[in-house]
Design goal:
Order of helices and strands: EEEHEEEEHHEHEEEHEHEEHHEHHEHEH
Largest sheet: 5 strands, antiparallel
Distance between the termini: 27 Å
Strand order of the largest sheet: 8-7-6-9-10
CATH superfamily of one domain: Phosphatidylinositol (PI) phosphodiesterase
Strand content: 15-25%
Helix content: 25-40%
Shape: globular
Structural class: alpha/beta
Amino acid sequence: MGENLLALTATGRHLMKYRENTIRSFNTAAAAGASFVEFDVQVTRDGIPVIWHDDDVLTISRHSGVPQMRRICDLTLDEFKQLSPAHCSQNSAAGLPESSDNGSSISEQALSDGVAATDRLDSHAGASTSTAAVPCPALGRVFNDEQGKRASCPMHWAVSNDDELPTLAEVFKGVSPSVGFDIEVKMATPSDMPVTPPQEVDRMVNAILEQVQAVATHSSRPIFFSALRQRQSRFPVLLLSTGGTCWHADERRMSIAAAISFALEAGLQGLVLDSGAVQEQQPAIAAARSKGLKVLTYGLQNNDPSWVRYQYTLGIQGAIVDDVAGIISAFGQASSLKAPAPEIE
């Protein structure tokens, strides 16, 4: 339900079923047996927390077929909502006007081999290459394959069961109360900036906490964060670290040992680690657990049932997976993993 992989078959691209970070995908995960859902929160230009993974969004112009990259923090809520093909379809059915195309074009270098964007995108989506046939708006993405390798060019991001792009408030209201929330706060700062500027922290944190605290007062839903320890003490906070699988100027993002040290110093409850880094640094898990830290993992490797089961023997208390139904099916039922939903206090 999470990372949308580049799924290719012998006859072409296999259409993905659900778009990540939507209420439909979260409820599908809950129905399959997930105890928590993880999602990423951005804040729009007008201060509304919305659910979206990246700092940027890639769209395909319905007029020219040219890819456009826009930052979520530069969009209003209305502009963000109009990015969704599902939202556009509802507007068209109601006779409402469609959104106009804005934003800066991606450079030809980013498209690598210079083939027209509409040719590339539509050749994978199975659609016509004419500009008029491009959906309004057409979301694009540079996908990873099942080995985590980045594709060389953006593709049309189509799914068979689409849904609107939600706000944080809509997710609290629309997602089954049977699942907890792992809320990852996405600061709109580049990887070469080791410390997020205070104004960006204020922009993100104030908007998110205001909504979460208002809703959580009347809810028993378990919630924890990947940030926000200095601004609140009600909700548990786990530090997210890639463990060095992706470069970042922040040492805590590059080293599990540095992440452990900071988590202990800051009084955090644990870590959320890249599963690939854990495979290479398994002794670090024992070090974290011996200090009383909870450990969860994420990443493409967690779609392997044998690796998920092995993580339990390492003392890892939760695995964020994309193929929820597949992983649970591999064990017969969720309880056969022997690991209950993480209790993070």
